Amino acid sequence: MSDHEHWQLDGSAPELYERYLVPAITRIWASDLIDRVGPMPGQSLLDVACGTGVVARLAAERMRTGHVVGLDLNAGMLAVARSVPVTGAPIEWREGSALRLPFEDRSFDLVLCQLGVQFFPDRSVALREMKRVLVASGLVAMSAYSDIERTPVANAFVKALDQCFGANASRTKRAEHIFSRPGEVAALLADAGFEHVSVDTVTKRITFPSVLDYVRFQLTATPMARLLDDRNTADRDALTGTVASVAESFLEPEMLRDGQLTSPQEAYVAVALNPA
Which residues contact 43 (CB under 8 A, 6 or more apart)? Predict the structure, then answer.
């Protein structure tokens, strides 16, 4: 596919998520997270809120041997995860809640959670559960987006949504960006009993063939799709184009060079130790 060819969004939302969002965004952050903890052959690793499984797959590839588990509440995402070939350590896919992890105490050497903690209805309970299933001196690592203004394309998108669909249309998207300071993430981990907590503010660059492609993905393969649920195909296409046009008006010209969309994206990435 050339840089300028529009993505063809055919398939279910989880399939589209894996096909487009994973290579464009989540694999970038997954690689960073895996590099920070350096999983070793023979270890046991849990990926909480695994989605379609990119973190678990990269960990399995790095480890080569051991035990990797990917856990998520969404059966559709897990179905896609199971369909993707795995290289390295075998992966067990489990359906379950981060608030009640279905594992014995001290079952894992590493627990990872990429871009998921902001969605947990009780983050403190989820962090205590992660601590419970970690061995003594095991590591937890997690990432979470910072303020939405620190990711220009997401900020332009939510402004466009509110302009096109009415105030609060962007509420679900904004909920991805609830942390304003790295100290908020550090406090969650410390309050759960973790030690030696470190949180880095990290910026990556994400690229899409165009603003239209970014918007089409958001309105097709994420929870934002509900904004178009009651629309026919022609209306969906027209509204998607309108949102893309409005979003583009909020972006700096250098992000739109040669028709392609490139935007910085910021997140807080934390690593902490489960004390003995």
Answer: 63, 66, 67, 109, 110
